[in-house]
Amino acid sequence: MIRRVLRYATNELKQTRDITQQWRELVIKPMRMSAISGPITIIIDALDETLPECRKEIILLLSRGTDLPNNIRIIITSRPLKRIFDSLRTLSLIRHVSLGDISEASSQRDIKLYISNQLANLLDDSRLSDEDFEKLTKKSEGVFEWACLACEYIQGKTIGLGPVKRCQAVLAGTTSTGKCLLDKMYADTLTQIMPEIERDEAIPVFRSVMAPIILALPTLLSVSALTIMQPVGSNYKVSNAIGLLGSLVTGGVDPERPIQPVHSSFYEFLLDESRSKAFFIDVSESPSSGSGPSLSGPSA
Predict the structure, then answer these.
(1) Count of beta carbons in the 10 Å neighbourhood of residue 24
(2) Where does the record place the Nephrocystin 3-like N-terminal domain (predicted)?
(3) Which of 7, 200, 259, 278 would be 251's cystine partner, CB 3.0–4.6 Å?
(4) Residue 290: per-residue pLDDT
(5) CB-based contact 158:122 (threshold 8 Å)
(6) How many other C-beta atoms are found inside a 10 Å radius of the C-beta of residue 213?
(7) pTM, rounded to two decimals
């Protein structure tokens, strides 16, 4: 429907930066004129990747839910950033669902299906098996982006490693690519949160917050616990720092929820200076460091 409206829309409407005008002309009006009586779903993907001023305008428009016909449902996807969560949770028409609340079995099932479909053509030719798909699913730790990058790497065509050896490398972490699948995402996200121009001020705060979390493993700390442990005289809010890391760790929205990495490789990334570079965390410099953190897996 919207595609049809776009086909006949003026270039001015297509190219305008006035989100309110586009929402009114491309969404509200067509929906009101539509003869469709069944459910219609509109998806707004990656709200967190919009410019802050655009994001505010979108949230304001969404708050006016009564402008839409009753058969319209809107699905919004976003990384769990605290500022977005706080903006939306006060709206009575919004139902919040966190991927962290989805059962592990359901997530694993979806990822197994994705991996099986992506690598199905390699089952016969390369001796990959359903058991390999199971291992890859477990290795993903429920992170779809890891699964996507792993499949892309395994399917790669080079003179060197074939699909079987690439799969083994991913599972064992024996090649730089197989070991560091999410490193670019980590670096890009941290760079966005701590741009170079502000990094001198941001990095000490980042390290002050993250070092205790890593050192405490396998014990899991919450925002509330970190706040109690916060050095006297520090001028930052732990909740703000963790909230900005919403795509990398869980626990930023609920102060009592244990903080855990979305994927365990994030902590490994931070502890390896050759990988994390400016974002490296040297836990040996922490006053509370002992023999070093264990990354064998968090416990509740």
Answers:
(1) 13
(2) 9-79
(3) 259
(4) 45
(5) no
(6) 26
(7) 0.75
pLDDT given at position 300: 39
Mean pLDDT for each 10-residue chunk of the chain (300 residues)?
71 83 84 78 86 84 73 85 80 77 87 94 77 94 91 82 88 82 93 94 95 94 94 89 90 90 94 96 70 38
User: Left if phi > 0, otherwise alpha if psi is -120 to 50, otherwise beta: which for 288?
Assistant: alpha
CA angle 195, 201, 204 (to 5 degrees): 105
Q: Describe the chain by its helix, strand, coil percentages, rounded to 5.
A: 55, 5, 40
Q: How far apart are CA 233 and CA 54, in angstroms?
A: 36
Q: Which tokens in the block code for residue 84?
A: 């977005």
The DSSP element (H or E) to which 249 belongs, if any, is strand 249-250
Residues making up the chain, counted from first to last: 300
Tokens 């090649």 correspond to 175
Note the pLDDT of residue 296. 35
| Tokens 């409407």 sit on residue | 13
Question: What's the pLDDT score for residue 88?
Answer: 83
Q: Among 69, 138, 63, which Cα is nearest to 108's? A: 138
